[in-house]
Amino acid sequence: MDHRKKALLLGDYTHPDWHPLQGVDAEISRIFHDTMTVQCSENRNMLLQENITGFDVCICYMDDWKGKVSPQQTAGLLSYVSNGGGLVIIHNGISLQNRYELKQMIGAKFLHHPPYAPLEFTVTAESHPVTEGISGFTMEEEPYQFEFGSFAETKVLLEYQSEEGPKPAAWAHRYGLGRIVYLMPGHHVPSFAHETYRQLILQAGKWAARYV
User: Per its UniProt record, what Gene3D superfamilies does this chain match (predicted)?
Assistant: First the structure.
């Protein structure tokens, strides 16, 4: 019997705006192979309460900047997290912000990004379970920039260096009984080959799913 926890990975195979799930799904499945089974889907109805409750963590790589998840799907995800579910949002998964309720839960919104470039990442919360044992690293990435909500009690875990100074690149907080992590890197499949970033994804998933 498989005693691993269960992760749901949501993204877009058929109509992504910029970031397809193809290839990324295999990388994330490999990252969690020893700790969690990963079910990959583009079906937004997996967010409905009756479908999502069977998972320990939802990993969002949705690339739906034009659309919106439905009110029922939004309610399902809000209920899931507030009742103890984990949510890990990677890169473009922040497109969930099209629903203002989900934007509030995430704690920040994407604004824009300068061109893809080599970025230096530094850890700003060394004692957090998501970043424990992780050192600063460099990788090529889209330098997403964000605006944080005034009500979110969030902990910035990573920053990257920009011409304007350091910018947030990852954060984590609790929402009701649940746990949320956002990781900014993840533009395309090569992003997931970086060993330090793979470790960061693994630790984010384990913290959100309450392994630690």
Answer: 3.40.50.880
Alpha-carbon distances, residue 99 vs 7, 10, 57, 69, 102 (angstroms): 23, 16, 20, 7, 5
Q: Of 169, 73, 84, nearest to 125 (Cα)?
A: 169
Pairing label, strands 145-148, 108-112: antiparallel
**Cut 0.85: pTM above it:** yes
Task: Count Cβ atoms below 10 Å from residue 46 Cβ, excluding itself.
Answer: 19
The model's pLDDT over 155-194, given as tens digits with 9 standing for 90+, comes to: 999 999 999 999 999 999 999 999 999 999 999 999 999 9
Task: Compute CA distances 65 → 16, 147, 160, 209, whole Å.
Answer: 9, 17, 24, 27
Number of other CB atoms surrounding residue 87 within 10 Å:
23
